[in-house]
Structures are given as C-alpha cells and as structure tokens.
Protein 1
Amino acid sequence: MKHLILSASILFLPLLAENLRVYQYTGVRAQYTDKNAKNEKIHIEREIDPKCLDLAITNEMIWEGSYANPSVPKECKAMFVTSAGQVQPMKLHPDVETYGEMEVMKFIKTMQDRDDMLLIDTRMENWYRYRTIPGAVNISHLDISKANLFPKAFQKALKTLGIIQKNGQYDFSNAKIIVLFCNGAWCSQSPKMIEHLLKLGYPAKKIKWYRGGMHDWLTLGMTSTRAK
C-alpha cells in the first residue's frame, strides 16, 4: 500500500506543476485597493520588454561585472544589489508550505472569490507603500513579534487574520489561509512572523511562505504596484 501511495504521489506532482505553469503564459486577473482606497482591476504577469525576448544570454552578460553588460538593451537591465541578511532555509516548519511565484499566482487568483485567504506583506509600511505584490495587505512583522510594544496594532492584526482573543485565549476556528512574504530569501521578517504566529497557536497548515519575496518577484519581472 505504501508503494502504491508513493507512486500516485510521483504521478501527481508533474500534473500539479503542469497546471501551475499555465500562469506563465496567461497571468492572473485580480483586484487590489490603491492608495485612495479605490478598488482597481489588474493583470498580474511577467512584464518583459519585447527587446529582451530574443536576447542571447551568455555567462559574461549575466554573471560578470555590474550586471550591465554593454550588449544588454537598457530595457532589460536591472540593478543587482548584494545586501546583508540571513539566508533562510527552504522549509520553516513541516506543515508550512513554501511557495514559489506560480503558487503565489494561483493563490491570488483563488482568493479573488474568497474572504478566508490573505496575501500578507510583512515589511514595514514604507516598504509596502513603495512597491508590493498586487492584492497584498500590510501586516508588519513587528505587529505580531512585538505585540507588547504595539498592542493596538497587534489587536488590529488579529482581527485581520480572523483570530478572536477572549480571556487571554485565542480562537483560530476562523483563522484565514495566509501567504506571507518580505524582501527576499535573505529576509527574516516573514519567518519571524510565522514563528510567532505558530507560538500563538495559528494552524501551521493555514500558513504559506513565499520565500523569494519581493527580490525574486521583481527579478522575474512580475507585476507590482506602488502606493506613492
């Protein structure tokens, strides 16, 4: 029986990956709230300038110097910044799924018709307002990890997440399915927030983590929104 289950899983995984690959070509239609609290429709996809489509990529072009090889059209260039941080593992918890871009796209598409799903940007508000993934709400990691310092923000976050607090106890029966992200695979903000949510008792299976965050999202040319 174990062998049969394993075989079925192996067969299923390529099918799942194939379904997710659809978003590579179709993108996802979604809604988000702009800085004026107005609902806007948006198409989320890879935004690649036509000049970049037939670019013959070489080792020297991609990996050498300042990532601005003279033969690369300016429309195809982006600044690559190496920064401090702590590289995160691929898995934070046995029951917390790690997402890539296609899984995030599917999540965004599904959450359009549901009120029990949230995409959460865990960075500080100034980062969120500068640029974020369309449809994401902002709950700073500090609102959860530093609840004693920001009690009002903590209570607001609990309400947004669907958590009811009564007599010092937390009721997670209506807790939302959430995807959390921050600046990148070297960013510890969303992992810290996940750690503290788990300590509160948040169901691990309702937590998803987009490890690549804004760094990978923008590196891949995915649609983003600004609030400024």
Note: Confidence is low (pLDDT under 50) at residues 1-12.
Protein 2
Amino acid sequence: MSLQRTFVIGDIQGCYQGLQRLLNKVEFDPKNDKLYAVGDLVARGEDSLGTLRYLKSLGDSFSSVLGNHDLHLLATMNGIRKAKKADNLQPLLEAPDKRELADWLRQFPLALRVSPEHTIVHAGLYPAWSTQQLLSLSEEVSYYLKQPNYTQLLEVMYGNSPKSWKKSLSGVARLRFIINACTRMRFVDKNAQLEFDTKTHPSQAPKGLLPWFELPNKQLAPSEKVLFGHWAALNGDTHSAHFIGLDTGYVWGQALTMLYIEEHRLIQVTA
C-alpha cells in the first residue's frame, strides 16, 4: 500500500470543475489520500451544490474549516440573511438535501491541526494567539454550531465589533471576535485591531494598516506553519515561511492552489 498523501486546497468557492481538474492532476485517491480545505467551499463558482455533494461523498477522506461564505450560507439556509446576488447559491438553497448538507457543514471547526506542524484556518492566525489557543477558541464556537439551536449563534455573529481581543471577552462579543478573526481578518493596525474595509494587496493598503501576518507573533514555534485562504488579492504573497496563503483567486480567473504537505509543494490549475 502506498503512503497516504495529504493535500490542503485553497478557496474552492463552488468551482466544481476546477476542483475536479486539480484532484485529477494529482490522481487523488479517496481510499488512500486525505483532502483538507481552508474554507469558502461555496459561493461564486458555477456549482456550489455539486461541490458540497462531492466533498461530502468523500467521507473521512475530506475535512475542512469554515470560511465566511460557509457561515453565511448556513445563515441564508435558515432565513437569517438573504443570499447575495453575486453568490450563485439558488440551486443549493432549493436542493432537497440542503438540510443534510447544512448539518454536515456545521460539524466543521474554524481551525484544524492537519499535521504536527501545520494548522489551517480560513482567514489567518490572530497575532496575539498561539495555534493552540486558536484551536481552543475554535472549539468554543464549534460547541454552539453543533447544537440543535445553532441558529442562535448565526443570528448574532454579524458585526465588526469588538475590534480587539481581550481574554475577558464573554458571550456574544467573544464568539463574534473569534469568528471574525478566523473567517474575515485581513488587515490589522499596530495595536492588532481588526480592520474589515480593506481587501487589496498589502502594497496598496492605507498607511497604518498591516497584513495580520506582519505583526510579530512571539508564540509561533520555528517549525510551525499556518495555512489560510480568504484573501484572493494577496495571491499567496506573505514573504514568510510560517504563513502560506492558498487563496489564489480561481473564481476571479486566476488559479486554484493546493499544498502537498509531505513534499511541501504547491500544485495549481489555472482558470
């Protein structure tokens, strides 16, 4: 039997054909290989429904963290928010198995350790947190997402405050900050306050804003790597051995990227 291979894929965004092309390129074998995703499984691509059905069919060979689009889908499925016009979600919202897909999706965490050295999270690692703290805070949110009344969390997760982390945060403020840091973060100021308006490449950002990964994080071990998506305009441009950006904008006509963990090699297909 050949050794198990581990792949981590960037934002799929419902691009079913691109997903299949990339998996075919590496001859992905669900019986032997493992596929992880950095979130945003759905949204602007041509077939979010087909994407979710396929990934669910992989069973234990697939796992993911949740992105902002995945959480928004759950809120939309439950009538809390309306689908955005740009999101191609109607077939999914009308699917006979949508409840089953929603229940499958909400079992995924916000952060996941995929090897002793590799942790995945959709938007990134908040600079004041260790990866162990990130995993622990992810579990706090997952606890509520896995409850029968999980929609109560979805109803209060929207909003930009609080902007800063304090260990003393509690209740809705605490959960919202964790969700925002894990699924929406791009830029912070020098005091590690989250800023949500700017989505450009760091070279075009307003003065005073830094990509979250440029604020020093003293809690990272030298060998640790954080794999993230969410930021298409970044195009993987972190200039850091610690932080690997896997959203390379396939849905915007660029590339779909996957990291082959065992060989530490990036594999791509272009749109």
Note: Residues 89 and 99 are 14 Å apart (CA to CA).
Protein 3
Amino acid sequence: MQKKIAAINDLSGIGKCSLTVAIPIISALGVQCCPLPTAILSSQTGYPHFTFLDFTSEMKNYTDTWKKLNLSFDTIYSGFLGSIEQIDLVIEFISKNPDAFIVVDPVMGDEGQIYSVFSEKIIHEIKELVKLADLTTPNITEACLLTGRSGEYDTLTRKDIEDIAKQISDMGPSKVVITGIHEDNKKTITNFVYDKDANKKTFISKDYLKSSYSGTGDIFASIVSGMITGGFDFEFAVNTAVDFVTNAIEYTSNFDISRNDGVMFEYYLQDLTKLGAKVFERDKTLR
C-alpha cells in the first residue's frame, strides 16, 4: 500500500507556504498527501490583502468522515494552527490514529517574537501537542518559547542549543530539529538535529544567503515528513531538506520577487521525484 500523510495546515491560493507546498513536495516523494485544511485564504497573511475562511467548524466532520471510511495514516503532520480549538481537534485526531508517526511543526513565532495573532496561552497548548510528537521541527525562536527562553534566541551557544533540544525531547518527541540558527555574525545559518533513540546530534550549517522568503519552514518540514514516511534515514532526510531549501532560496534571490511570494521550489521538485522513484522501486519489490 502507498504510504499516506495527513497534512494539517492552512491553504493559501497565493504565497507558497503551508499546504500549497506540502501537497506537491510530499507527492513528489512518492507518498500520498491527504490535506486537512485549517483555513482557506486567497493569499497568505503577509500580503496587504487576503480573504480568510476559518475551517475549524468543519475539521471534526472532516476527520470523522475519514474514520467512517476506515482510513489510516502512516504519518500525521501538523503545521500552523490558528486557535486552541484547532490544537484540541488535532490532539483528538492523533488519539484516534495511535499507530501514526507524528510530526509537529510548532508554528508560533520568529525572530525572537511570538506571532501577533497568538496570545501567550498558545504556548502551553502547543506544548501539549509537542508531547504527542515523534518529531518536532521548531525554529530557534519556537524552541526558546517551548523551553521558557524567549529572550535568549540570538545569544545561545551550541551547548545551549543542545540542552534546549534535549529539553524538548524530554517532553515527548524522540527526534528534534531546531532550524534557523544564525552563527558567525550571521554569516552562516545552522540546523541542529537531535535523535534521542540513536544517541546522535548533528549541526548542519550553510552560508547565510541574506534572503528570507515565506514558506521555507513548511518546505523543510514537508520534505522531512515525506522522506521519513517513505523510509529514508532521519539525518539524510534533514540534509536533503537543507540542500533543497538552500538551492531554492539561492535561485529565487536572483530575481526581484517579494518574500511573500515564496521560493521557486518547483524547479527543484525533480530532485525529490528521484527519491520518490526509489521508494516506488523498493515498494514494488515488496509486493
């Protein structure tokens, strides 16, 4: 059977983020992406104008219908959740899929600040969700929010980051990736990979390209989720995601493109499709 991911996030018609990137990326990796929208937007919220349709009232009907169809998922991957009610619905959905691998991207903030759409109460609720995860992918700001270090995100040593990852892992997830760590006076950008079960920890650094675009965190988490579901090694999946995002940012930065538009990731999907083909060939031999 083809592996399936239930991807829980918002859907924006314009602006390459959330489900708009998760669906093609996970599909390219040979895994079926089953979207569960939390909201539908004409354009992502970084634009000066957008429409917003809250899908909270339909989420339970949506997942209950999946249950009636006897659907099961190999992975449940959650991203931006706009309210405590949505977090509770995702927790309930996870409880009804006890065999799924759980990926939580705890979207709460960036650059040392919690997003303006959230109150401090959201941090406690996101922690409850992270406790259920097998893998979580916070950026450095979100990692600090999860561990009560919100004022320290740009002054941390590598030892501090290791301690933060272990503290997050102790909440529940055996695998933690902390992204977007600036080092060497912002000359490099680093991701820290921690795998408690394998007793492995790795820093992965790239030159900082001084370009920032919407949706790169969603791209990263979607690649890692899709590759783990497809049976790839965790560290290899993270390295693949880092390279993919770096290449897409570097190419996009050659053009006069708004950060709200996101990166031109479509030109690099062929790299993921090659990995998806390996999954197909492996699964074909198992049938």
Note: The chain is about 40% helix and 25% strand.
Protein 4
Amino acid sequence: MSQHILKKAGILAGFLIFSMPLQADDLERRQAELKSLQSQIAKEQNVLKDASKRREKLQALLKQDEQAIASVAKAVKETRASLKQVDRKLEGLKGRSEELNRLKASQQATLSKQLASAYLAGSHDYTKMLLSQQNPAKVERMLAYYQYLNNARMKAINELKLTMDELRQNHAEQIDEQEKLTALAAKQQEQSKRLEAEQSQRQATIKELQKTLSSRGAELEQLQIEEASLKRVLDQALKAVKDSPKLTGLASQRGKLSWPTKGSLSESFGAARSGQIKWKGVVLSAPEGQDIKAISDGKVIYADWLKGFGMVLVLDHGHGYMSLYGHAQALLKSPGDLVNGGETVALVGRSGGQTEPGLYFEIRHKGQAVDPATYCKR
C-alpha cells in the first residue's frame, strides 16, 4: 500500500516537474502576444492621429484653394459684366456716330443750298438800299428777306459746328472704350489662366485628401463631423437672427417657388447618404458658373467656406425659415445684404471637395430641415 502511494507520488512529482516549465512558457508567450498587440494598437492609434492631423491640414489647404477659386471666379464674372457694359456703350457710340454723319451730310446740303441762294441773289449794299428812292415797303421786305437768309445760314452753320464737335467727342469716346475693351479682354484671359491654375491646385489637394478617407469608417466619421459643423453654424445663425417685418417667411409660398438654379436632381431629400446619415437637402447637378438665385426675399446671415459644403450662403426669410446654398464656386453677397427673390446670390461650383459641379440646397424651418420639393415647383 505504501509502495503504491509512493509510486503515485513519484509519478505526480514527475508530472509537476515537467508541466511547470510548459505553463511558464505559455504565460510568457501570451504576455509577448499581448505586448505585441498593444504595440500594434498604439501604432494604429498613432497612424489614425497622423491621418486625422493630415486630413485637417488638407481640409485647411482645400479651404484656401476654394476661397482663391471663389475670388477669381467672382472677378471673372465682374469682368464679363464690364465687358458687356463697355461693348454695349461702344455699340451705342457707333450707332450715334452713324446718326451724326447722316445729320452732318443733311446739314451740309442745307447750308450749300443757302449759300448758293445767297450767291445767286448777289451782293447788296444795305445802306444804298436804305438811301434809295425805292418804295420803303419793298425795301423793308427785301431787308427782312436777307435777314432771314442770314439767320438761317448762321443757324445752319452753328448746327453743323455742334454736330462736328459731337462727332469728334464721339470718336474720342470710341477710342477710349475700345482701349477699355482690349484691357478687359486681356484681364479676363489672365483671370481665366489663374482660375485654371487654382483649380489644378485644388484637384491635387482633393487627391491627397481622398487618400486619408480611403476607409468607409473614415468617410462616415468625416460626414458626421461635417453635419455637426453645419448644424452648429445654422444654430448660431438662427440665434443671431432678428425678425424683420419685411420678411414674411415661406409658409404662404409652398409649391410656388422656383428652384434656385436649373439642373437635374441627383440627390433627394431623406435619401440614404452613408450609414445612418441621410440627405438633409437636395443636390442639383448643374453647369459650373451658372447663376444661383435666391428662392425668395431674404437677408444674408452666413456667407463663408464650411467643411464638406464648401462656399455656403444662408438666407433668412423670416418666421424661422432659412434657405442654404452650398458647393458654390463663388458667393456674390455678404452677411447683412438684403436680396430679392430671383436675385443672383452665388455661382454653381464644386467646392467642399466635390468632383462634379452642382448645388447643395436646403430649406429649414426653426432649425429643422424640410423637403425643398414641398416649396419649389415640380
């Protein structure tokens, strides 16, 4: 019995002697794996931090790029308007010049006839006529006739002189306007080149930015940040709004308003955007540079670049109603400006990192997004 117990004890001791190193090795292995995982997690966290920082820097650069594009695009529009104005003035001057030349020809013909009449009548010594024994009534008629001819000639000469002066002034103005036209055309060409360069720089920035948003999670996170940023801006704008008696809201205009720009609906209100995020407005695909018009009378309460939405303009329409216009190429109004319905407030663009031109459009009532199709004509 004792030998059997001793035998079992020996086997157990042997098992413990061999098993203890195995348990220690397993523990060390698991500790090493844990350290390795912790190291990988730390690296991933650093990578995420670096990616986030890089994304922020690229967003700041994108803002600069798109603000530069907005500035040049606005200048291009102003130059085009000036070109049209100068061209119209030049056409008006040319038209007036043609009228003056016809008038000059008519006046010259009239004066020529008057001079010919005076020549045929011959020269008269009015003193002799007065001292002659002719009938005084006849002499008086003759004197009145010659005085009339003389006055007519003087009038014709003065009118011709005025016409010639206006023609000279018209010619000088035409030269001046032509010089302006040439300068504006050169300026527009220079602005177009600069716009092209700025757009090229923006494209390079977007390419780098997209690398930091390669994963679905990063893209979703970015959309959540952008949406929160927009909500914060609109909430602040709503608090700052002071009701104006001139702004009557949009309640009475349901289904009667025109869309802010002509285009096709590429994203609908309420449609899924990414994950649980839905569209709070609509996207209208439209040509870059096309006019964006205010849907109704309003006051500009925000006009600046906003992450994810680019160049954004917000109008207060009164009674808690606001309309928002995003992804613009350029904003043509500033905060505090009063605008009329149908007035151009911005230009269609692709700001906010968009690859295709279009307009992001929202209508909100007391801070809550509502379907724009409820208010704009279908």
Note: The first strand starts at residue 264 and ends at 267.
